[in-house]
User: What shape does this take?
Amino acid sequence: MSTTSQHQNHTAQAASHQHPPASAAAPGPASWSMAAQATLHCLTGCAIGEVLGMVIGTALGWSAGPTVVLAVVLAFMFGYALTMRPLLAAGIGVRTALKVALAADTVSITVMEILDNGVMLAVPGAMDAGLSSWLFWASLAFALAVAFVLTTPINKWLISRGKGHAVVHHYHHSH
Assistant: This one.
């Protein structure tokens, strides 16, 4: 089905309010490629929020605690927003798109945030290094890479059980 046809189909479904519930994704086999794509999608939102939070907190001279809290809040916001954007563009309502984003991303983003912030806090001096320091940026890149590698198997497991990004995939392909 072409992108235009899919969009028209999503729009028609949205207009008639015939959406399956967010939990309606059918379990099935999940490839490592599918899991990596889902993880990369989550990582993109997390990275935007994480970097922005770290930059703001560091630039304002905040301690590690408030900086991490800001980074986590922004990571969740950007992660959910990136999932909601195509759903909203397809004509799905805000409430439904938010439910799908919450179902699709919460576990993945939570795991990523625990991992990448844990790495940042564990690297000596990373949080106090400052934005002009290679240590800050290298630590952040390493932290995000660790989060990607360790979250991909979790996303594979979720997708194979019809959860996580399988919900978004189901939404995109069931209309």
User: Anything to note?
Assistant: Helices lie at 3-16, 32-59, 64-89, 94-122, 134-160, 165-173. DSSP finds six helices and no strands in the chain. The chain has a mean pLDDT of 80. The radius of gyration is 18 Å.
